[in-house]
Design goal:
single chain, 263 residues, mainly alpha, 3-stranded mixed β-sheet
Length: 263
Amino acid sequence: MRHAIAMLVIVALLAACATTTSSTGRTQYVGAVSQQQLNQLGAQAFTDAKRKGPLSTDAGQNAYVRCVVDALVRQLPTDQRSMAWESAVFAEKEPNAYALPGGKVGINTGLFAVAKNQDQLAAVVAHEIGHVIERHHDERITRQMGAAGAVQLLGALAGDYGQLATQGGGMLAQTGFLLPGSRAQESEADVVGQRLMAQAGFDPRAAVSLWQNMIAAGGERPPQWLSTHPDPQSRIAELQARANQQLPTYEQARAAGRRPACG
C-alpha cells in the first residue's frame, strides 16, 4: 500500500512539472515545487546557515558585499528584483560563495583573497545570482524528485550548512540547494553572470582575472568551488571572448551613471 501511495505521489509531482527555456535558450525541466516554496526553502536554508555561522562581524566586509549585491540586483527584472535580497559574510577560509532562491547570498571571507577588487567580487556574485534567476535550484530539485521519488523527495543537502526540514515536519524533505550544479548550469551561470555584471557597471573582464586568481590560489588542487565547474582553461577562454562582447554593454552602463563604488 505504501509503495502504491508513493507511486501516486511521484506521478502527481511529475505531472506538475513543465518544460521551459532558459534565457540562453537551454531547455529546462522544472516545476516540481512552486516559486513560493523555493523561496521559503531558500530562506530557511539561509537562516540555518547564519545560525551555524561563524558570521563575520566586520562592518566594512558586510557593507562591501551588500553594495556589490545591491548593484547587481538593481539590474534584474522587476519580479526578481522584488525578492527579499540579503547577504551574509561568513568567517570561513574556503573561497566560497552561493546564492539561494528568495534572494539570499552568502560569501566566505576567504573569497576576498582571490576576488581582489569589486569587479572580481561582482563576477562571483553575479555568477551565483545567475543560478537563482535561471531556476537551476528548481531544476536540481525536479531532477532529484524524479530520481529519488517520494521517500527522499528533495534529495540530500550537501555542504557545510546541515539539513533543511520542510514545513509540516512529517517528512524530512531536504533540498539540493547547495549540491553542485551540472556543467551546463555552471556554463549558463557564467554567461548570465557576466552579462549582469556588465549591465551593473562592473568590468566583465574581471571574470577572467578572478578565475586566474582562483586557479593560482588552488595550486595543483583547485578550490572546492571549482571542482564541478568546466575545465578552467577552456572556461577562461570563453570568459575572455564574452568579456569582449560585453564591453559595449559595460561602457553604456558607465555612461548611464552606473558606476558602483563598493570598495
